[in-house]
Structures are given as C-alpha cells and as structure tokens.
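Slide 14.
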Amino acid sequence: MTATTALADAVLVLRPDDHVGVATRDLQDGTVLTLGSADGPGTVLAAPASAPADPPASTFGDATVPAVGDGHDSAPAGAAAAAPPAAAAAGAGAVLVVRQSVPRGHKLALRPVAAGEQVRKYGQSIGRATRDIAVGDHVHTHNLGMDDEDREYEFGTARVSSPTPAGPARTFDGYRRADGRWGTRNYVGIVTSVNCSASTARLVADQFRGRALDAFPHVDGVVALTHDTGCGLVPTSEGAQITRRTLRGYADHPNIAALLVLGLGCEMLPAQSLLDGLDLPADKPVRTLVIQENGGIRATVRAGVAAIEEMLPAIDALRRSPAPVSELVLGLNCGGSDGYSGITANPALGYASDLLVASGGTSILAETPEVFGAEHLLLRRAVSRDVGQKLLDRIDWWKQYTAAGGGTLDNNPSPGNKAGGLTTILEKSLGAVAKGGTAELAAVYEYAEPVRARGFTFMDTPGYDPVSVTGIVAGGATVVVFTTGRGSVLGCKPTPSIKVATNTATYLRMREDMDLNAGRIVDGTATVASVGEELFDLIVEVASGRQTVSEELDLGADEFVPWQLGAVT
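Slide 15: predicted structure.
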C-alpha cells in the first residue's frame, strides 16, 4: 500500500522559491505527499509557479525558521511558505510523489531543475545540478555539484542597529581580574612552550586530579595546555608567530587565574618569549620553569607542583561577583553538522548572539572555509569596506593555501556532513553563518588575535573543530557554544563549552553529551526565538558557574590544538 502524508508533516520548505525541501522523516520511494486538499486523486506537481520577490521566512508547524539573511522575522504558523508555491499552481489536491528514498535531513526536489542550473535552498544557490532533477528526486552528491559562479559583493548594505533589550540589564556572576576583564572560570594553567615539555606538564597537572583540589573548591582545576610544536620552525615564520600568539592568548586569558610556563630550554620558541611584553594582570601569579635548567623532568615536576601548591590559596580566595553580560565574549562554533544545522541550532545560536551583542557584549564567528560561499551575506553587514575587505583577503589566502596543498575550498563537507544531508560547501556555509545572527560585522581578526572590538566579530580559523575553537579561546572567548548534528564531544578548557544538538534523534542518542536540544524547532514544539532565548539564559548560567556536560566529563585539555603552518625543519 502506498504511503500518503501531508507535505507539511514530512518536509520543511525554507523559502517558497526554493528548489528543495528538507525531509523531517525518512521518505520511502513511492511515498505520496499531499500539497492541497486530500479530496480526489489530485494532480502530480510538475512545474513551479513564480515566487514573490521578497518571500517570508518559512514555517513548520508552530516553529518559525528565519531564512538566511532575513533576520529573525518569520511568517505566522500556517503561512503559505509551509508549502511550495507550485502547490497553488497545481490546484487543490495536488500531490508530490517521492521518486527515490530520501533519508531524514536530506533534500527532496520540489521543482524540476535542468542539468547545469542552480539549485536553491535558503533562497540562495547551494550548487548546480549535474544531471536533470525531477520533482520528487533525492537531491545529493549524485546530482548536485559546486556552483563556481562569482557572488555579488556589497559592503555594508544590510547594517542594523541592535536595540537595547527591554527590562533590567542582565548580569552574570564572574571573576573580576585586575585589568578590568571578567573570567567565567578560575583555572591554573600550565602553558608549554614546546612539545618537549608536554609530558612534564601532564605529570604536574596529574598531581591535582581526583580529590587533590577538594580543599580548594573555588579552583576549577589545573590544566596542562600541551601541543605538538614549538621547535623546528623558523621563528619569524607565519607558523611560529601563530603558535606564539596562541600560547600568549591562553597565558593572558581571563579564565586562567594563575600561570605556570614550562619549557625545555633549547627550543626555537623559548618559554620566556611567551611572557615578554605581555601585560598580564597584576593579580595573576606567574612562574616559569625550564627543564634543562631545573635539573630534568623529576626535579621540574617537583618544582612545578610546589609552585602551584603555593598559588592555590590565593586563587581559591577569589569569589564571583555580579558583572554586566556586556563583559562576556562568546565563541560560536559548529561541528559534525547535518541538514538541520542551518535550520535549528545555528539560527537559535544566532538569536542568542544578537541578544548578547544588543547588550553590549561580544561574539566571535570563525571557520573561514565554512563561510566560503556565504561571505557575501557577511559583507553586507560589515561596518566598513575595510572590515569587509579583510574578510575577503582571508578567503583569498585560503584559496591559495588549499591550492598549494592540491585541494580546493569545495573539498568540504566531510563524509559525516554528507551522511547528515549536506552536499556542497555552499549549503554548509549558508547554514554555518546563521550562528552569527543579524548584527553588523564589527571586526575581522586573524587566528588567535586578541579580540578587542565589541559586537559581532569574525576570526580566521580552519574548519577543523579543535583548531578553530583553540583560536577562538586564544582570542578571549570566555564561553563557547558548539552546535552539532552528528554528535561532537568537544571540550575547550579553560572555557566552558555548551553543546547544542540540531535534531532530537541525536540529542536522545547522546543525551549525556548534550546540553540543549534545538531539534524541538523542527519537531514543532519550539521556535528559533524561544530556543535562542533559552540558550542565552543557559550562556549566562554557565558563565556564572553552572557546569556543562563537557566539564562534568573533565574534557578540554586534549582539544587544545594550535593551528600549525609552515615547513618543519
């Protein structure tokens, strides 16, 4: 017996003029989707009608989903955007027959597309058809490829003024540092100048695991920040400078209340160079140990443990106090993305980011290879042409960098992304930029640069999650929100990482690793705005000390992965 269901119960249509919709359940070959009245046999949808010039955002049940670039306004539940305009053209009783099985989260063709033509989702091109696509086809890697057509760039044409939120100013409970910045955690950090001191740093940190810190309840832990470089690089090279900048960013981070710098002694990046010229706050205790000068590993471990034991009472004496949320720096990242990422968790995070920016705070979007293809939307929000041009300059750098490695930027998405329904980097990027909300783009930074501007900013990082988040934290992020469709388990000490699932199936399967379920947006039990507000509240609670699931599992030290560039000699 042929399965029959309403299209609105099985497919999410993001824009009325889109060529594809997103399946919200597994659709079998031959399934009949009704688009109009269920009376009579209906007619098979064959051709699209013309779409309005400026269509509203989509709806799905009671959920409202803003289209890319449209802000947070959305059509009321039951609006015409819930079905393709072709339904009206076909008349009451129109049906769409699924021609090939379409997994949940993947794309279903709502309109015919000829080979070579653009395929649109979010109202934007996500690629070109590599063969003729018929209504009811599964649209994926077998019939959709890259669209290399140049996008039209405009600078600052979509700038907005974020209204100050109504009501009392929001606060969080944080640690005020002597330089005026606010931390959300109270860590002792061991920063290593070279891989050769990594094992020694871990031996020191291991002495403070388990019940060793029970007498110091206001110390969040001792974290060894180890890495695989620090030597074999030309000191003046871009790679060496990035490593140094990253390590200095962690040394200066407001979530690190005390610091032990640990080196070997003969490396190209000496331990002292991580501190030279660094204006650390006066209330941050700092010790430097060099293994070769200190008598070897055992002697250095003893000295390191003694140094930290001396620091602990002063760090434990620090207390949280109320601070305006404008002092928060929020890192925005996604990983293990799927077909729902740009529909649920990412726009909800964008909503929360806008709330923070409107309150005077700062957010950092990153992953340059994963905004490629959507950069034109960010340029329209740039506060100046110089800011927009800096973003374009970083994308041009990436084109040259990937070409030198024998690849291109459209090598992305990953196999896991594709299994989750994403086909091209254009589709992935259009969903990824939704994390940045609608606020104007205030500044663009290179990897691990200190983020000093207020408002919504961008940092040039790779798309590889640990490397990207390491750069964001080095830049000063005091809270990170990480959205995931496939199920990432990343932590990022000394900054708490909030995990947001894009779909309910992943949330339920990995409930002990997720902090929030944004899949409710597609389920019809929540909206982008309601989840965004819930996420903003969670950010404030976590900034005030509430542990995330990553922190409960003590994750975040192994995910410290500075970006490595350049020849190793």
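Speaker note: DSSP finds 15 helices and 26 strands in the chain.
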